[in-house]
Amino acid sequence: MRSRWQRFRESFFLYSFLRDPMAYVSFAILVVLVVGAFGAPIIAPHDPYDPTTIDIMDSELPPAWSDEGDSRFLLGTDDMGRDMLSTMLYGMRISIVIGIGAVALQAFLGIVIGLLSGYIKRLDNIMMRIADVQLSFSTYMIAIFIGAIFQTVFGVENYGKIAAPLLILIIGLAEWPQYARTVRASVLAERKKEYVEAARIIGLSKVRIMWRHILPNTLSPVLVISTVQVANAIMSEAALSFIGLGMPMNKPSLGSLITAGFEYIFSGAWWITILPGILLVLLVLVINLLGDWIRDFLNPKLYKG
């Protein structure tokens, strides 16, 4: 009997993936970035969270290849004297965690609401009207409202301690309607099929039918949305950090690093904001490219592999 690994090696998914250079190059870059982010405590040459290792006299040093660069700091230092390479790796880890956490929250809310709305008719209008109201508010409006409340309650200094889970909560609550609408549409199509009627006839409960029979058949579009939404969540976090509602500077994300260096971009210290910006664009780009490939692969009408 063939093992799972053997079946995977012989699968059409792997065959199609390896035939698409854009897919496997994007995946390889994403793996390198994720390993670098989560392996930062081991890979990074400096610890930007340890103030004893930071010297303010080393602030705003250009990258090592410049004439005034220092070989200790490959990508230079920021205005606080922190090594840019190390700070970017640690910051990317925070951005990825916030992106994945926000998508997990919005997917959970969207799947539950979409299943209930699509399968139980009397809940449909209520759930969809709530989704419509939610869509009328942008992520930034919700962030400004909730962020202002929490900063008032906890104070600006203590706000930094809850910034990451708060950003996950804000972005998750702001984006769940996309999942709900997609899952609802899939459920409306699936509930009319024979296997659902058969499950209903033999006496299975609504909860069992929804979670054990209908949900697995709605996961393909959810997977496609999730890959795109991770990139969107990372961009949302960066935008919120840019307007001062994101991560604090003592635990920076890529967004807050870009913000911190923005005022220095015209004074000659371009690397403080440009390098984190390039890394952010690269991270979002490869995730979006993989999401596009998965979308095309799961849609036979689009896939031309």
Automatic annotation (TrEMBL):
<feature type="transmembrane region" description="Helical">
    <location>
        <begin position="21"/>
        <end position="44"/>
    </location>
</feature>
<dbReference type="InterPro" id="IPR025966">
    <property type="entry name" value="OppC_N"/>
</dbReference>
<dbReference type="InterPro" id="IPR035906">
    <property type="entry name" value="MetI-like_sf"/>
</dbReference>
<dbReference type="GO" id="GO:0055085">
    <property type="term" value="P:transmembrane transport"/>
</dbReference>
<dbReference type="InterPro" id="IPR050366">
    <property type="entry name" value="BP-dependent_transpt_permease"/>
</dbReference>
<dbReference type="Pfam" id="PF12911">
    <property type="entry name" value="OppC_N"/>
</dbReference>
<keyword id="KW-0813">Transport</keyword>
<keyword id="KW-0812">Transmembrane</keyword>
<feature type="domain" description="ABC transmembrane type-1">
    <location>
        <begin position="92"/>
        <end position="291"/>
    </location>
</feature>
<feature type="transmembrane region" description="Helical">
    <location>
        <begin position="269"/>
        <end position="291"/>
    </location>
</feature>
<keyword id="KW-1003">Cell membrane</keyword>
<keyword id="KW-0472">Membrane</keyword>
<feature type="transmembrane region" description="Helical">
    <location>
        <begin position="137"/>
        <end position="156"/>
    </location>
</feature>
<comment type="similarity">
    <text>Belongs to the binding-protein-dependent transport system permease family.</text>
</comment>
<keyword id="KW-1133">Transmembrane helix</keyword>
<dbReference type="Pfam" id="PF00528">
    <property type="entry name" value="BPD_transp_1"/>
</dbReference>
<dbReference type="InterPro" id="IPR000515">
    <property type="entry name" value="MetI-like"/>
</dbReference>
<protein>
    <submittedName>
        <fullName>Binding-protein-dependent transport systems inner membrane component</fullName>
    </submittedName>
</protein>
<feature type="transmembrane region" description="Helical">
    <location>
        <begin position="94"/>
        <end position="116"/>
    </location>
</feature>
<dbReference type="GO" id="GO:0005886">
    <property type="term" value="C:plasma membrane"/>
</dbReference>
